């Protein structure tokens, strides 16, 4: 399916993945309505740094997915909804779990209800590999048991189940995409790879402070994840109500990633374990690695940018931010 002339809403368009997806949809000729969370400063998150050609091609709306009336108005006349808006910081979910239910569960319910009311052609629900918890078998396919090992992951499991319920109950055309650990330019420093790179490059940081180095992850460059969203939104061969993994199938430990970052940045700063960065022992997801064959078979998606190239691109972006002073002054950003 071509996106040319298609009316598309992206919730969470002001965020890391959402801003990249918004740019890609605009480049594909879609009529994009980009939802940014309302704030009193008139800011649109990462959309404010998008090229002028993108900004002139999209309609930015400020609002909140927790407001059902607002969402009902936003989705009127739309063809596809890419639902990415969520609270995603795992550490903060230990302190404020109710807010994760309000945004991730109730907010998703509002999106689904508005989509049902207006007969939206397709809803793409954004899930996360965190719903699987520590891998019971590897690689992780979509039939792997779901395990709520943090309030964040529990809220995303609930949102996914709500999406499945709307397919079964109301025949709403919803497809769930489960990206594994996406990284790249614009990602928050609460993410492990971003904080590694920032500390490696920041001359004010004499060491790289991290949590547990032993867990493994499936790191996937943001351009690959955006391609997966575009493939899912444009495909007619995916099953509604079913989840689809988007990862690389390559398992890398946090310790191995530090070595890659040190090589890419040319630093040999010591790596120090910071107790404040450790998850509760039973909450730590020990291993994640994707089996993405279901998505590949359904629509031909495969990750195009490998890990080393993705790290190099992300280091280049961070180097530019630091050289221009466009970064948080403190390197202790955990949430």
Describe the 3D structure:
This protein is α/β, with parallel strands linked by helices and 335 residues long. It has a domain at 7-183 and 222-246: 3-Layer(aba) Sandwich (Rossmann fold). It contains eleven helices and 13 strands. The protein has a seven-stranded parallel beta sheet, with helices on both faces. Helix 6 links the parallel strand 5 (122-126) and strand 6 (174-179). Helix 5 packs parallel to helix 6 (151-170).
Could you list some keywords that capture this structure?
11 helices, alpha/beta, 15% strand, two-stranded parallel sheet, single chain, Rossmann fold, 335 residues, 39% helix, seven-stranded parallel β-sheet
Supply the CATH superfamily name of the domain at 7-183 and 222-246. Answer: NAD(P)-binding Rossmann-like Domain
What is the element string, with H for helices and E for strands? EHEHEHEHHEHEEHEEEHEEHEHH
Strand order in the largest sheet: 3-2-1-4-5-6-11
Task: Let me know the largest β-sheet.
Answer: 7 strands, parallel
Task: Assess the beta-strand content as a share of residues.
Answer: 15-25%
**CATH architecture label name of the domain at 7-183 and 222-246:** 3-Layer(aba) Sandwich
Overall geometry: globular
Computed CA radius of gyration, to the nearest angstrom: 19 Å
The gist of it:
The chain has 335 residues and is an alpha/beta fold. The protein has 11 helices and 13 strands. Helix 3 runs parallel beside helix 5 (97-118) and helix 9 crosses helix 11.
List the helices and strands and how they pair.
Blueprint (H helix, E strand, L loop, with lengths): L6 E5 L4 H12 L3 E7 L14 H4 L2 E6 L4 H8 L4 E4 L6 H6 L1 H22 L3 E5 L24 H20 L3 E6 L2 E2 L8 H10 L6 E3 L5 E2 L2 E2 H13 L8 E4 L5 E2 H12 L5 E3 L19 H7 L7 H18 L11
Parallel strand pairs: 1-2, 1-4, 2-3, 4-5, 5-6, 6-11, 7-10, 8-13
Antiparallel strand pairs: 9-12
Helix pairs in contact: 1-8, 3-5, 5-6, 7-9, 7-11, 9-11
């Amino acid at each position: 399916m071509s996106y040319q002339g298609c009316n598309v809403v992206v919730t969470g368009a002001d965020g890391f993945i959402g801003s990249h997806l918004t740019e890609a949809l605009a480049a594909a000729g879609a009529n994009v309505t980009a939802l940014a969370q309302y704030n009193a400063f008139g800011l649109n998150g990462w959309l404010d740094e998008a090229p002028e050609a993108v900004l002139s091609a999209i309609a930015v709306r400020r609002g909140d997915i927790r407001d059902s009336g607002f969402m009902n108005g936003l989705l009127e006349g739309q063809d596809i909804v890419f639902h990415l808006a969520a609270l995603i910081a795992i550490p903060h979910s230990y302190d404020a779990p109710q807010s994760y239910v309000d945004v991730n569960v109730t907010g998703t319910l509002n999106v689904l209800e508005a989509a049902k009311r207006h007969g939206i052609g397709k809803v793409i629900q954004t899930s996360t590999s965190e719903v699987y918890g520590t891998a019971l078998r590897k690689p992780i396919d979509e039939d792997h048991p779901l395990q709520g090992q943090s309030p964040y992951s529990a809220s995303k499991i609930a949102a996914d189940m709500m999406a499945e319920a709307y397919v079964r109950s109301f025949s709403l055309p919803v497809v769930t995409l489960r990206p594994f650990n996406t990284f790249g330019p614009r990602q928050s420093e609460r993410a492990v790879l971003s904080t590694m790179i920032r500390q490696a490059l920041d001359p004010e940081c004499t060491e790289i402070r991290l949590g547990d180095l032993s867990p493994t992850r499936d790191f996937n460059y943001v351009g690959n994840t955006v391609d997966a969203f575009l493939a899912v939104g444009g495909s007619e061969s995916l099953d509604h109500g079913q989840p689809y993994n988007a990862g690389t199938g390559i398992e890398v430990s946090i310790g191995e990633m530090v070595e890659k970052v040190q090589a890419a940045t040319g630093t040999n700063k010591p790596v120090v374990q910071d107790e404040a960065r450790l998850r509760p022992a039973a909450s730590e997801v020990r291993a994640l690695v994707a089996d993405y064959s279901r998505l590949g078979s359904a629509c031909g998606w495969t990750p195009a940018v490998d890990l080393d190239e993705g790290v190099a691109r992300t280091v280049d972006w961070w180097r530019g931010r630091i050289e221009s002073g466009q970064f948080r002054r403190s390197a202790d950003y955990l949430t």
